Amino acid sequence: QVQLVESGGGLVQPGGSLQLSCAASGSVFSGNTMGWYRQASGKEREFVAHVTNNGRTTYGDSVRGRVTISRDYVKNTVTQQMNSAKVEDTAVYYCKYQSSQNYWGQGTQVTVSS
Question: d(Cα 89, Cα 111) in Å, to the nearest integer?
Answer without folding.
Answer: 7
